[in-house]
Amino acid sequence: MKTAWKLIFIGVLLLYFAGMALHNDALQFFLKPLLVSTLLGIFISETAGIASPFKKWIIGALVFSVGGDTLLLFANNNELYFILGLVSFLMAHVCYILCFHFIKVKESVSGKWHTAIIVGVYYFFIMSFLIPHLGALKIPVLIYGMVISFMLLLAMHLYDLTDHTTARTILTGAILFVVSDSVLAVNKFYRPAPWGGWAIMVTYMGAQWLLVKGLIRYIKHRRSSDSTAVVP
């Protein structure tokens, strides 16, 4: 079943990008909600039978992401759908934040002040650039920017996990998510680029895949560590 979900994910992803290349809007419309849905299937199948307090937050993040993907399909027809999609993705990031926070506490990882400066500089510059173009959406976008920046900050803190592969995978996923949303914001509010759609989707799917991959690895590694700890 694990292999089946991975094959389905790869198939849906390739078909979706084929739809983009062929400018087939109907194919993209049908497949977009399935992209993260198949990642959810991978996560559930890979962690089946493993009791973990983090699973509910990861599932929540993926479910809200599917909701955001679906709502944004209608954003060109009604601005309300864009706002609802933004809220859905905001909730996805809140779920990732809670997951990263509890991992940070569980692993006794301490934060570093320079990471806050790096994230703060990113937030200041991207928002300074976007604010003149946001109009009535200024407050929602500013709030969303704060939330995704905090998600990135916590992912940077997790870089000190003892399992460096997990740490790098999660951080790379978080960075790609920020890149994807930044390109989306510039594309929507400032000036659309011919390559914008590709940049958004490649980084977005890379982000979600790496976050799921890293968090699956963490949950399995945590189970192995806990099992070893109780062996006399």
From TrEMBL:
* Taxonomy, superkingdom: Bacteria
Query: How is this protein situated with respect to the membrane?
Result: Multi-pass membrane protein
The UniProt record lists the keyword Ubl conjugation:
no
Q: Which UniProt keywords apply?
A: Membrane, Transmembrane, Transmembrane helix
One of the record's GO molecular function terms: hydrolase activity
Task: Specify whether Iron is a keyword of the entry.
Answer: no
GO terms for cellular component: membrane
Q: Which residues cross the membrane?
A: 7-23, 57-75, 81-103, 115-135, 141-159, 196-216
Give one Pfam family.
YhhN
UniProt subcellular location: Membrane
Coarse class of the primary localization is membrane
Give the family from UniProt.
Belongs to the TMEM86 family.
What is the name listed in the Swiss-Prot or TrEMBL entry for this protein? Answer: Uncharacterized membrane protein YhhN
Organism in which the protein naturally occurs: Niabella drilacis (strain DSM 25811 / CCM 8410 / CCUG 62505 / LMG 26954 / E90)
